[in-house]
Structure formats: structure tokens, C-alpha cells
Write a structure and sequence with these properties.
Length: 70
């Protein structure tokens, strides 16, 4: 978590940081709403982010309640 915080401070517009945080939210914290928010933000920053799209689809397959906000 501290590495993600540092990365976000260094480049707050880095899509990879938000995709990584979404991965952490999903697989370690089981916080699916936070994962969806971070992955959606990652895709907003970089629409071609394959990892963010893959994780978002994976989350939707795992939990039917995993939705993309807004």
C-alpha cells in the first residue's frame, strides 16, 4: 500500500497505479466497490489499458455485484 501511495504522489495521472490499486483491492482486500472505482479511473486515464480491462471483467465474473460506477 505504501508503494502505491508513493507512486500516486509521483505521478497522480498514471493509469498503472490505479490498475495496481484495483488489483490490490480485489485480490487482497476483497473491496470490490473500491476495485471497480480504481479500475474505472485507470481506464479513464488510459482507455487502452489491457490489465485494467482484464481485471474489470474478472471482477464482474467473480461477483455479480461488482459494477462499474457512474
Amino acid at each position: 500500500q505504501s508503494a502505491l501511495q508513493t507512486a500516486r504522489e509521483l505521478d497522480p495521472q498514471a493509469a498503472e497505479v490505479f490498475a495496481s490499486e484495483g488489483y490490490m483491492n480485489m485480490h487482497f482486500d476483497w473491496d470490490f466497490p473500491a476495485a471497480a472505482r480504481n479500475l474505472k479511473h485507470s481506464i479513464d486515464l488510459n482507455p487502452n489499458s489491457a490489465p485494467a480491462h482484464d481485471l474489470l471483467v474478472s471482477g464482474n465474473r467473480r461477483r455479480k455485484t461488482f459494477t462499474v460506477p457512474g
